[in-house]
Specification:
Layout (H helix, E strand, L loop, with lengths): L5 H10 L2 H5 L6 E3 L2 E4 L16 E3 L4 E3 L4 E3 L1 H9 L3 H9 L6 H38 L2 E2 L5 H8 L10 E12 L5 E15 L5 E8 L11 E2 L6 E2 L2 E5 L6 E4 L7 E5 L2 H13 L7 E5 L3 H5 L5 E8 L5 E5 L18 E6 L5 H15 L5 E6 L6 H7 L4 E3 L1
Parallel strand pairs: 14-15, 14-18, 18-19
Antiparallel strand pairs: 1-2, 2-3, 3-4, 4-5, 6-7, 7-8, 8-9, 9-12, 10-11, 13-15, 16-17, 19-20
Helix pairs in contact: 1-5, 3-4, 7-10
This protein binds zinc ion.
Length: 392
């Protein structure tokens, strides 16, 4: 079959801005020259106004849960589960390409791409500095601090770790209807450091705390819409990085890896209380589900959920795309336990853990999946003393 000329592809991309195409599937919110919202591939609530896993500009998109991204053609490939050529055909429709118009748009795109890359690099470095300043203003999560009391409220022991800190005052910014960030809340928070493979600080996981609330998390409400916002935020770069909650030793032989901080601290607390020898065991949080499995090679149909057209919703599949680096696991680890929590979609969690298992596979290394009981997450299980289910 003839190769599709680059000029035709560029024209197609220019005529189909990513945020407009994605916006036909989900409700996106404008944030300057970016759009955020639920993901047209993996979100079940397509009209959620607080979702922010998906981010798009005119030229590209990225989803934190799919751990995928690319141009508009890649987006259609993933949403519709089509091959490259079919996705191109779907976008072409009946329109005749105009070569003069195509080259004008291609030049415009190249200019925008160059500006984008510079801007992204600058923004990333500024954000890392801001995160580092917040982290430096924190103190250790010692017993008696609000962060320690928050963990205890969740039934957790307070670990002696350098990865968690407590800060008295962290501002919470949220975009208003015009897309500009507004300061809508400020208060005490627990910080978790996000580090890369060689332990360099890359970002922060922030949990705002209010010990007067039943679950200890701050109640944060958008003053304009009255909508309740998540009490947790991730800032900086998380992709391929991790929160090294409990390190065990420098070269741990076992790694327990799960999505959230409380999820991972739950089995640690249970094992710690039961008197297990944890000197060789590390406990890490991947910050979010997508980062646990890394990018998938392709999407697969969800067995139950359907999209707007009644066709099965596509989800990131179980096979990892090894051309995109995932989280780096220390060579010393010979036993990995992946935690499958019940608070995300079960099918999506399953494909993600299988992807992680393939990604982290190495000679002489065992990888096990530990699932929370149906209807529970690991933290509920800790508080209710329920046993996990193990799979090889
Ligand atoms: Zn997604």
């Amino acid at each position: 079959m003839a190769r599709i000329p680059d000029a035709v592809l560029d024209d197609l991309r220019a005529r189909n801005p990513v945020h407009e195409v994605a916006g036909r599937y989900v409700a996106l919110r404008n944030k300057g020259n970016r759009w955020v919202g639920p993901c047209p591939i993996c979100s079940s609530n397509t009209s959620s106004r607080t979702a922010c896993r998906f981010e798009a500009s005119a030229d590209k998109w990225v989803c934190a849960v799919c751990c995928d991204g690319g141009d508009v053609i890649r987006l259609i490939e993933c949403i519709e589960g089509r091959g490259f050529r079919e996705a191109v055909e779907a976008l072409v429709g009946d329109a005749e390409p105009d070569p003069a118009e195509a080259s004008r748009r291609a030049a415009e795109r190249a200019k925008r791409k160059e500006m984008d890359e510079r801007e992204v690099a600058e923004r990333r470095e500024k954000e890392r500095t801001r995160c580092r300043d917040i982290w430096r203003s924190g103190i250790a999560c010692l017993p008696g601090s609000s962060a320690a009391t928050y963990l205890q409220l969740r039934g957790l022991n307070v670990p002696d770790t350098r990865s968690l800190r407590f800060v008295l005052e962290v501002p919470y910014f949220h975009p208003g209807p015009d897309g500009k960030a507004r300061l809508i809340y400020s208060g005490p928070a627990m910080l978790a450091a996000i580090q890369d493979a060689i332990c360099i600080f890359r970002g922060l996981h922030i949990t705002w705390i209010d010990l007067d609330q039943p679950d200890g998390k701050a109640l944060i409400v958008d003053p304009e819409t009255g909508e309740q916002l998540p009490a947790k935020k991730v800032r900086g770069v998380k992709q391929g990085n991790a929160i090294r909650l409990i390190s065990g030793c420098e070269s741990p032989s076992r790694l327990v890896l799960g999505e959230g901080v409380e999820t991972v601290l739950s089995p640690w607390t249970a094992m710690h209380r039961a008197g297990h020898d944890l000197s060789q065991t590390a406990f890490w949080s991947s910050v979010d589900l997508g980062n646990l499995g890394g990018r998938a090679l392709e999407t697969v149909p969800h067995p139950v959920e359907t999209g707007r057209n009644g066709a099965p919703r596509r989800m990131p599949g179980p096979v990892p795309d090894m051309s995109v680096a995932g989280m780096a696991i220390p060579d010393s680890v010979t036993d990995i336990v992946l935690l499958g929590d019940g608070d995300s979609d079960r099918f999506l969690t399953g494909t993600t853990l299988r992807r992680a298992a393939q990604r982290f596979a190495a000679p002489g290394r065992t990888i096990r999946l530990a699932w929370a009981r149906d209807g529970y997450d690991f933290n509920d299980m800790l508080r209710n003393a329920v046993e996990a289910k193990h799979e090889q």
